């Protein structure tokens, strides 16, 4: 069975993470078990790319690195599904609160735009 592998450069293109970020995530334990070629070069698999896409989602939605590490640790133990759900539900509530705050702030800005347009004439 053939497994697709990717060079670090290909993973950078696929995920948008920098090489430094990939190395950092591996160093701190967010990215675990990255394979190596016989020459010692990193060799990523589809599972690694999928995991990085999950990390991108968590990071882009504001999850702190420490919380991402907690989630990563949970995913390494099959008996932690309930804990993973709880962590993701908490993050989802945080996202909802930020969206509500942004919508209120947007309305304030739109009000200011309308005011400036009215006095510009």
Given helix and strand content, the structural type is mainly alpha
Radius of gyration: 20 Å
Q: How many E-type strands?
A: 3
Largest sheet: 3 strands, antiparallel
Q: Which strands sit side by side, in order, in the main sheet? A: 1-3-2
User: How are helices and strands ordered from N to C?
Assistant: EHHEEHHH
Uncertain regions spanning at least 5 consecutive residues: none
SS summary, helix count? 5
Q: DSSP strand (E) fraction?
A: 5-15%
Distance between the termini: 71 Å
Helix content: 55-70%
Shape: elongated
Let me know the average pLDDT: 95
Explained architecture:
This protein has 121 residues and is mainly alpha-helical. It contains 5 helices and 3 strands; from the N terminus they run E-H-H-E-E-H-H-H. Strand 2 (35-36) and strand 3 form a beta hairpin. It is elongated. The model has no long low-confidence stretch (mean pLDDT 95).
């Amino acid at each position: 069975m053939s497994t697709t592998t990717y060079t670090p450069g290909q993973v950078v293109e696929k995920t948008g993470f920098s090489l430094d970020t990939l190395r950092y995530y591996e160093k701190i334990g967010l990215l675990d078990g990255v394979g190596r070629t016989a020459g010692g070069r990193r060799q990523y698999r589809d599972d690694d790319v999928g995991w990085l896409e999950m990390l991108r989602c968590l990071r882009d939605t504001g999850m702190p690195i420490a919380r991402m590490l907690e989630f990563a640790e949970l995913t390494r133990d099959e008996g932690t599904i309930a804990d993973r759900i709880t962590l993701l539900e908490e993050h989802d509530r945080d996202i909802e609160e930020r969206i509500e705050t942004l919508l209120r702030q947007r309305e304030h800005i739109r009000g200011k735009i309308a005011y400036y347009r009215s006095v510009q004439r």
